[in-house]
Amino acid sequence: MGAGYGRGRGVVAAVHPERAETVQAELAEGRAEVLAARQVGDEQVEQALVGEWQSRLRRLVTADPQLADELRRVVAELRAALADADTPQGTTITMQATAFGNSRVNQAGRDLRVTTGE
Questions:
Q1: Which of 13, 55, 63, 116 could pair covalently with 20 via S-S, beta carbons 3.0-4.6 A apart?
Q2: Phi first, then psi: what are they for 51, rounded to 5°?
Q3: Which segment, 2-6, 8-12, 67-71, is predicted with the most confidence on average?
Q4: What global pTM score does this model have?
Q5: CB-based burial of residue 8 (10 Å sphere; 0-12 exposed, 13-18 middle, 19+ buried)?
Q6: Where is pLDDT greater, at 62 or 15?
Q7: Is 101 domain-assigned?
Q8: How far is CA 7 from the centre of its chain?
Q9: How many other CB atoms sit within 10 Å of the CB of residue 34?
Q10: Does 100 map to a domain?
């Protein structure tokens, strides 16, 4: 959330300079909440925060339609930054397994959930 987050803060300052400090503090608080929710795997909190900020942006564009293009660019940058943050860079995973008889092998480069009827 680094570069995209900073860009979002800059756009807010340009759009509403009189509220820049307040909105930047709200963005920082929201960012901290998202990071904390991700750390514990709480997708509901994350989605609630996304919904809250979508509503704020929708109201902002309704009040000033000329902001739509700039906000689209910022949102695209934020999405790309979030996708990059979720993908470990330079990670190489090598796996090897051998199974004999009735044994099972489960391998994954990241999350793995195995359920059996046993």
A1: 13
A2: -60, -40
A3: 67-71
A4: 0.50
A5: buried
A6: 62
A7: no
A8: 15
A9: 19
A10: no
Enclosing domain of residue 25: 3-86
In total, how many domains does the chain have? 1
> Does the residue 105 lie in any domain?
no
Whether 97 maps to a domain, the answer reads no
Statement: residue 51 has pLDDT above 80? yes
Confidence label for 102 from pLDDT (cuts 50, 70 and 90)? confident
Classify burial at 12, counting beta carbons within 10 Å of its beta carbon; exposed 0-12, middle 13-18, buried 19 or more.
Answer: buried
Do 23 and 16 form a contact (C-beta atoms < 8 A)? yes
The residue count of the chain comes to 118
